[in-house]
Amino acid sequence: MSEKDGDDDGQKPKNVFSTLMADGEWLFIKGEYKKAIDSFTTALTLKPDEKNCFVGRAKCYLKMGQSENALKDAEASLKEDKTFFEGLYQKAEALYCMGEFEFALVFYHRGQKLRPQVQEFRLGIQKAQEAIENSVGCPSSVKLEIKGDLSFLQKDEERVQPITAIQHLTKERKQQTQKTPKNEKTTRQLLGEFYSDKKYLENLLKDEDLVKGKTRSGERLQDVIQSCLTYLDTCTELWNPEKPICARERDRKLMQQKCSKLHSSALSEPAQFLLKSLDDIDAELTSGNAEGGLKKAKGVMKTVQGWSEKEIPNKKEVLGSLHSCIGNALIDLGNMDKALDHHQKDLELAKQCKLPEAMSRALDNIGRVYARTGQFTKAIEFWEKKIPLVRGGLEKTWLFHEIGWCYLELNRYKEARDYGVRSVAAADEIADGKWQINANVLVAQSEMKLGNFESSVTSFDRALTHAKLQGDDFATNAIQKALDEAKQHLSQ
C-alpha cells in the first residue's frame, strides 16, 4: 500500500464523521429530530468523546421532550471540559425543562460568568427566576424546609422523576417594615431582577443539609452556589450605578396592560384563565411537546370563541396569539400547510387590530414556513415586510441573515452579500459571537460566488476568529476548510 493510499484511508473516517454531523444539524433545522439523533449517534461511534456531537443530540432530545436524555448528553459534553459553555447551556435547559428551576438557574449563571456576551444565558436566568417566582413566590419571602438529602448521585439509570432537593417550600407573607440598609439598597438597584437570584442563593447556602449534596457530575452544590454568588458580587462592583433597563420588566408591564384590557378587575376569571393557559401552552412548546401544546391551544381557542367582546374586549388579539401558538406547534409537527394557514390568520387579525408587534410575529412565522418548504422568494417577501417592525439587535441580526441566506439559495449573490453585511453590523453592535460567525460566513460565501476572493478570505478570517473565541471547535474546523479553499482561489 502506498503512503498516499494510507493517508486517504485515514481521512475517510474523519470525512464520514463531518458528513454525519452536518446531516444531524440539517435534520435538526428541518425538525426531523429522530433522524438527527440517529446521525449524531452514528457520529459518536466514530468519535465517542466529541462534545459538539453530544450537544447536537441533546438539543434534539429537548425538542422531543426527553429531558433526562438531554441532561445525560449535556453532562457528557462537559466531561473533559467543564467550561464548555454550549454544554453548560444545554445542561441548564435540560434542568429547566425537568422543572428543576433552582439548579437550572445555577448553571445559567455559571455559563454567563464564562460567556457574558452570550445573550441566551441572560435570558435563561430571567426565565428560570420567573419560573421560581411563579412556583413559590419571591425567594426573599420563602422559608426553606429540606426533608431528605440531595440525591443527585443516584445511580439508578431508569429513574423517571427528578429528585427535588427542596421538597417543601412554604410562603411567608411578611410586611417589610424594617428599613433596608443603604448598601443593600445599592445592591438591589445595581443587580435589578438578579437581586432576587442573589437572595435565593444565599438562602440555599444557609441550609447545611442541602449544601452537602452534589450534582449529577459530582460537583459540590456549595461550590456551585458560592461561585454564582461571587460572580454576582463582582457584577455589583463593576456595573454602572444606573439601573439597567430589563427586557423582562418591559414584558411584564405589557402583560399587565393586556390584563387590564381583558376586564376592569385584574382578578377576573377570563384574565386568569387566559394568562395561565398561554403560560401552559408556551411551556409545552418550549419543552418540545408540540402535540400537548397544540391540544391545549385548540381547547383554549374554542373557549375564547364562545366569549363575547364584553368579556374580553381584545378578543381578536387573543385569538391571534392562539393562532400563532397553533401554527408554531404545527411547524414542529411538520404540518406546514396548516401551520401557514394559522399564521396567516394571525397576520389578518393583527392588521385588523393595528398591532405592530403581532404583525411582526406573524410575518416572522410565515417567512419561516416558506423557508422551511424551500419557497425562498415567498419567505423573502414576508421577511422584508417585517424589517420596519423589528425591535432589538438580536432580532435584526437574525432577520438580515435569514433573508440573505434565502437570496444565496436563489443564486442572487449580490443581495445575499448586502444582507450579510447588514447582519454583520447588527451582530457586531450587540457583540453576539454566534451571529458574528453566521453573518460573516454568509458574506464570505456570497463574495466567493461573486468571485471576490480577497473579500471572501477577509470575511472567513473574521468568522474564524469569532469561532475560536466562542470555543466552537466544529465551526472552527469547518470555517478553516472554507478559508483554505478561498485562499486557493486567491492564489490562482
Summarize the helices and strands and which ones pair or pack.
Layout: H1 3-30, H2 33-46, H3 51-63, H4 67-77, H5 85-97, H6 101-114, H7 119-136, E1 142-145, E2 168-171, H8 182-191, H9 194-206, H10 208-211, H11 221-238, H12 247-262, H13 269-286, H14 290-305, H15 315-332, H16 336-353, H17 356-372, H18 376-386, H19 393-409, H20 413-430, H21 433-450, H22 453-470, H23 473-491
Antiparallel strand pairs: 1-2
Tell me about this structure:
The chain is mostly helical. The chain has four domains: about 80 residues, Alpha Horseshoe (Serine Threonine Protein Phosphatase 5, Tetratricopeptide repeat), CATH 1.25.40; about 120 residues, no CATH class; about 120 residues, Tetratricopeptide repeat domain (Serine Threonine Protein Phosphatase 5, Tetratricopeptide repeat); about 100 residues, Serine Threonine Protein Phosphatase 5, Tetratricopeptide repeat, CATH 1.25.40. A two-stranded antiparallel sheet has the order 1-2. α2 packs antiparallel against α3, α4 runs antiparallel to α5 and α15 packs antiparallel against α16. The two termini are about 35 Å apart.
